[in-house]
Amino acid sequence: MNAAAEWATVRVLWARDVKRFFRQRSRVVGALLQPVIFWLVIGSGFRSSFRLPGMEDLDYAQYFFPGVLAMVLLFSCIYATVTVIDDKAQGFLLAVMAGPGSRWALVMGKCAGAVSIALMQAAAFLLLLPFAGAQVAGVDWFYLVTVMLVSSLAMAAAGLTMALWLDSQPAYLALMSVVLIPAWVLSGGLFPLKGAGPVLSALMTINPMRFCVEGLRRALYGDGAALTIGSLAETRYEVWVLLWWALGFVASAAWVASDRK
Amino acid sequence: MFGVLGPNGAGKSTVLRILMGLWHAQAGSVTFQGARLPPPYDALRAQAGVVFQRATLDDLLTARENLLASGRLYGVRGPRLNERVTELLKVAGLVDRADERVVTWSGGMKRRLELMRALLHRPKLLLMDEPTSGLDEAAFRTFWVQVSRLRMQEGLSVLVSTHRPDEAQKCDRLTVLDEGKQLVTNTTAVLSRYVGGDVVTLEVESPDVTAAVLRASLKVDARVVDNTVRIEHPEGHALIPRVFEALDRGTVKGVTLRPPSLADVFFHLTGRALSSRVSNEPEPMTIRTEGQP
Question: What is chain A's mean pLDDT, rounded?
């Protein structure tokens, strides 16, 4: 395979996914409204009963904001990859698979599209940052963007692995509900790692989504907030852990994609 | 043009999918332009255009955008790509609708656009997997008129899989597949001579009984196919009066005499029908008289 064909495949798939996103009005509206509603409803629901030892000033809406931001990335990547199931069997993707690009290029193109859409949706949600108690000037934007980029790459590649492996959307959605949604619930976005029971705490410790939420929280509110809530080190290790997860999921997606039956 | 003819499940799509690099072959090899290729046959895929059994266009993109995306995949870009897209849209008669999303298009229009998409990068080989599946007769004819024209213009080799005898008849050479096995490969003219002469088909009440009577009395190879009695005979016109003499009056409801088709060749080779009915063939008309069911 030549590099031009690989690059062309990545570019075509990326451009197609972005174009498709903006042509589906309901998807754009849903992508913008769902996290806002989620944040407002759950955030205000738990506001009065949520107290963090040592961080009494932090209300639940503030605490929950990085969790919803992680959810925006996750759901965006899920929606961007679930269509692969039909697309690979009888859609545009089948024509791409028969084209001159390799399966690696296909995976990178789909991931690039999903990551771009996820980052755009996250950027829209970040407009609410002033209402989430964060000092906009104090946000570590470089770290925030890096964590979002690497996290969404890991999520997109994980979703793509599932979508390439499975043959039906119901199976994908079932797997999503037992793997991806619990991963988000146990990410520390809904409740902190500290204070959770031993089993939950163990699950949360090994959960890749945790590193996403902790990285986002660290970038938005600083090291102090992240450490009090449950981060394990003062160094910014989350992005490196996420990078390994991302590389692992990209490799798994490429491996599943290269299976030609 | 080379065809692969066989019923559903014969292995036609498997052959095409292996050549397209979608599936691994468990055995055998692929040779393209004199060179034996390692899987997944990159050199072949780069120089082949593909038309799938089902539409693989992106419904949310316009016709022009679908063509542009495909051209870029194969490394065609810039003014050369724009010119080629416009040229092919004109050939397909779709230039006026080029900027419409294809989601609302008919099956025939989508097929024509898929054919143009497969030819964007000027491939040497066109692979088509049951390309007219689901099309009505008018769309079928239009599609093949365009394939024939483009074959001449572009100097294309075509490999097509089909279960339709009329589609297979358009090929120069043909291989017949059944249950994953290659039965025979030859020109369509030679294959048609596999059947001994004419084919006589009888519509009767009890095909099994009638076939047995004809086998016993006329010593002909009468077989039951799709609830009719079918006889291959060197001189069908001479056989028909003898059939009527051999059977009780009123037994035969209808009789057909015709030269053999490729469906008859398949039956001759396997003893089974290629398909009970071609998908686009109209349902037989039933005439009911008053007071009778």
Answer: 87
In CATH terms, is domain B196-259 a member of 3.30.2130.30? no
Domain boundaries of chain B, sorted by first residue: 2-190, 196-259
Give the tens place of pLDDT for each residue, A167-197: 888 999 898 889 888 999 898 888 877 777 8
Q: Which of A152, A182, A181, A169 is nearest to A250 (CA)?
A: A152
**Residues of chain A with a CB closer than 8 angstroms to some CB in chain B:** 1, 4-5, 8-9, 11-12, 15-16, 19-20, 23-24, 90-92, 94-101, 260-261
How much is the ipTM here?
A: 0.83
Q: What is the dihedral of CA B9, B15, B20, B25, to 10 degrees?
A: 110
Contact B39 A260 (CB under 8 A): yes
Tell me: the pLDDT tens digits for A103-141?
999 999 999 999 999 999 999 999 999 888 778 888 999
Q: How confident is the model at residue A232 (pLDDT cuts 50, 70, 90)?
A: low
In the 3-class helix/strand/coil scheme, how is chain A assigned residue by residue? CCHHHHHHHHHHHHHHHHHHHHHCHHHHHHHHHHHHHHHHHHHHHHCCCCCCCCCCCCCHHHHHHHHHHHHHHHHHHHHHHHCHHHHHHHCHHHHHHCCCCCHHHHHHHHHHHHHHHHHHHHHHHHHHHHHHCCCHHHCCHHHHHHHHHHHHHHHHHHHHHHHHHCCCHHHHHHHHHHHHHHHHHCCCCCCCCCCCCHHHHHHHHHCHHHHHHHHHHHHHHCHHHHHHHCCCCCCCCHHHHHHHHHHHHHHHHHHHHCCCC
Q: How far is CA A157 from CA A26, A112, A168, in A?
A: 24, 10, 18
pLDDT of res. A90: 73
Task: Give the residue with greater pLDDT, A90 vs B5.
Answer: B5
Can you read off the two tokens belonging to residue B2? 């080379």
Which residue from B53, B34, B213 is spatially nearest to B130, judged by alpha carbons? B53
- For domain B2-190, the CATH superfamily is P-loop containing nucleotide triphosphate hydrolases (3.40.50.300)
> A253 to chain B nearest CA, in Å?
16
pLDDT over 90 (residue B1):
yes
Higher model confidence: residue B287 or residue A224? A224
Chain A: residue nearest B49 by CA? A99
